[in-house]
Amino acid sequence: MDRLQSARRGGLHLQSDCHRAQPPEVSARSGHRVLGLDGFSKGWVAVFLHGDAHEISFHGDVTQALSRPFDRASIDIPIGMTVDGERDCDVLARAMLRPHTSRVFTGARRWIWQDFSDPDEANGECVRRGQKRVSRQLWHLGPKIMEVDAFLREHRTLDIREVHPELVFLRLNANNPLPSKKSEEGDSLRRRLLKRSGLCDIDQWLSKARIGTGAKRDDVLDACAVAIAAREPAGSVGSPQPDAHNLPMQIWF
Prior knowledge:
By secondary structure, this protein is of the alpha/beta class.
């Protein structure tokens, strides 16, 4: 049974031991300690998987979210950036998600957030340089993108990979496109796919997660999908060539 551990250091934690009613192939999966992270308005959702032990927690910053020991972590945020915002991995991920190509945000560039605090001014410079504008959605992800970028450049020995949750859900759904995660049908399908992958307490997590956290349902579902990719990566898209700071530009799923 889940237990709420509000006093535990590092944020709000919900734990479960998923020994009951587990298919043999789920219980026998890798014993590696893995983390899946997804950002939300107040911080990060972190899903920890270690054999049959599963835990979800909520943290104010990425350093806190990645403070526990792990063998591999995956995160739903751009890792590795180009000067013009063009990445092969984004192009390939969008192609895989057709007809829902807009589910992949493109155009992350360090200089946009380093040099500008106003999106209109940043886009003016993009136009001057002959580059694509940055969308408002991506602009607002800037603080988290730069937070992760700084962390990775300081912790290069850690195995932390970029994952797009929609690519994970696509492969869990036998490569059949999914309805919007905001729709009732899309939410229900994603929950079924996660349960099939061994996350037996997803409904309890969803019912409790928003208590004092600010995390939305899709934030929790996405973090779970990212954790599955950390536990059992099926592959990646993108060029093996790293960016100027030697960070990979690959999206795993």
